[in-house]
Amino acid sequence: MAYQLAEINRRAAADPAEFLAQCDREFQSKVSAAADKIVSRLSMSPIVLLSGPSGSGKTTTALKIEEELEKRGVNTHTISLDNYFKTLDRRTAPRTPEGDIDFESPLCLDMELLDDTFTRLSRGEEVIIPKFEFARQMRNDTRGTPLRLEKNEIAIFEGIHALNDQIAGRHAEATKLYISARSNILEGEALRFKGTWIRLTRRAVRDYNFRGTDVAETLAMWANVRRGEKLYISPFKEKADIIFDSALPYEVSVMRSYALPMLQAVPEENQRRGELLELIAAFDAFAPIDPALVAKDSLLREFIGGGSYKYR
């Protein structure tokens, strides 16, 4: 799917509040359809696997699905696959072709523990959901949380590797979802803003606001992130029961007020200066929208902050 720049700018100028509200309603309808699909498959498995690349909005989408399921009388637990990272061992950790630790690799996850967790939850047995401490790069099982699924309860496991064969392949009965910002923005037939740029912008703004990472560092990591997506995430998306697009037509117009100052502040000697200039020019084509108009429960709040969801 693609959106047209002229239509985005027209609606941004005419009635931006209604433009945002309509886009959010359309995304919510996708979430509602996903919840219906999950409920229809509940008798097959209480496990839901939600995958998607960096910046796709997996966490907010999982929380929105959780809300929809609870409206349907299904109690839901959302669990990040990040908690199943193995304690980092530099001697055995997977490496990139350049020799760096490959944090994008599924080999960083404890596949055996995940397999056991899904099996036991499906049987109605209690498991301990582990806790990974990123500051110490270690899993602290003493901080784990017990979980048992009763009748009409579901566990959503969200993470970039949720559809990997070593996870989803062992549990074909689980309901599988894939989410990404997939839509390009065109001017006629000409490409003006790539779907991958939407995800890069989301990640750059979030990392700057909440993780103390400047845009130059995010750009430096992006090549390996994209490499990991092509190797470990995209090949499994067709195995999803539902694939949906998280790109919001209004978001580039909102994000320009965050992204442009960050991009313009990157030193000229940055080795990715060419892409930076291309991105800056792309943002300049969009009429701005005041971020204050973004709803508190919008998926975009995951990246710009100020939202109503609490992220675990």
Order of helices and strands: EHHEHEHEEEEEEEEHHEHHH
Number of helices: 9
The radius of gyration is 20 Å
Strand content: 15-25%
Specify the overall morphology: globular
Biggest sheet descriptor: 5 strands, parallel
List segments where confidence is low: pLDDT < 50 over at least 5 consecutive residues. none
Q: How many strand elements? A: 12
Helix content: 40-55%
Biggest sheet: strand arrangement: 3-8-2-9-12
Q: What distance lies between the first and last C-alpha atoms, to the nearest angstrom? A: 32 Å
Account of the protein in words:
The protein has helices at 5-14, 16-40, 58-71, 111-122, 195-210, 215-233, 251-264, 273-284, 301-304; strands at 2-4, 47-51, 75-80, 127-129, 132-133, 138-139, 145-147, 153-158, 175-180, 184-187, 190-193, 242-245. It is α/β, with parallel strands linked by helices and 312 residues long. It has a 5-stranded parallel β-sheet with strand order 3-8-2-9-12.
Outline the secondary-structure elements.
Layout: E1 2-4, H1 5-14, H2 16-40, E2 47-51, H3 58-71, E3 75-80, H4 111-122, E4 127-129, E5 132-133, E6 138-139, E7 145-147, E8 153-158, E9 175-180, E10 184-187, E11 190-193, H5 195-210, H6 215-233, E12 242-245, H7 251-264, H8 273-284, H9 301-304
Would you summarize the structure shown here?
This protein has 312 residues and is α/β, with parallel strands linked by helices. The chain has helices at 5-14, 16-40, 58-71, 111-122, 195-210, 215-233, 251-264, 273-284, 301-304, and strands at residues 2-4, 47-51, 75-80, 127-129, 132-133, 138-139, 145-147, 153-158, 175-180, 184-187, 190-193, 242-245.
